[in-house]
Design brief:
Length: 156
């Protein structure tokens, strides 16, 4: 008999969030949160490369603002997400966006190279897979697969 997959109410109705899309907003915030947590200190410089659907619709769906909001430590229900790009410089964070059609990855994928206040640098690749859930597929040189349930334990 095939294993039954247990679903929670959250799996059906999605996350509490600001924004038009659980993938492009809530998931993107979570990717930013995880990058900040892996860095372990205040970020001061970020280069974000967007792929697939993230690259095509980032501005209209607020993915750019959501990723930066996560880097600033905001949660997906914070009304300031929409202002994250203007808040970032006042918090000492500079952000540069790039776009790529290279590589085989999930269409909602972002690469984040993040530098902290001490000079520490990290690289993180994450994908938003729907319903505010994410999969982290790379941290620095390590390829891995950390799914939302593990990521939900990350707090900044």
């Amino acid at each position: 008999m095939k294993d039954m997959i247990k679903k929670s109410v959250f799996d059906i109705i999605g996350p509490i969030m600001i924004g038009p899309s659980s993938s492009h907003t809530a998931g993107a915030v979570k990717i930013g949160n995880v990058a900040r947590s892996v860095l372990g200190e205040k970020p001061v410089d970020a280069e974000i490369v967007l792929y697939g659907s993230f690259a095509k619709t980032y501005s209209g769906h607020g993915t750019d603002r959501a990723l930066v909001a996560g880097l600033l430590g905001m949660e997906s229900d914070n009304p300031e997400i929409k202002d994250a790009l203007t808040i970032a410089p006042s918090q000492g964070l500079t952000v540069q966006f790039k776009f790529s059609a290279e590589g085989e990855c999930h269409p909602n994928t972002a690469d984040i190279t993040l530098r902290g206040i001490s000079g520490k640098k990290i690289f993180l690749q994450g994908s938003s897979v729907g319903g505010g859930k994410v999969v982290i597929t790379r941290i620095n040189q390590y390829h891995l697969s950390i799914h939302s349930r593990a990521v939900d334990q990350v707090h900044v």
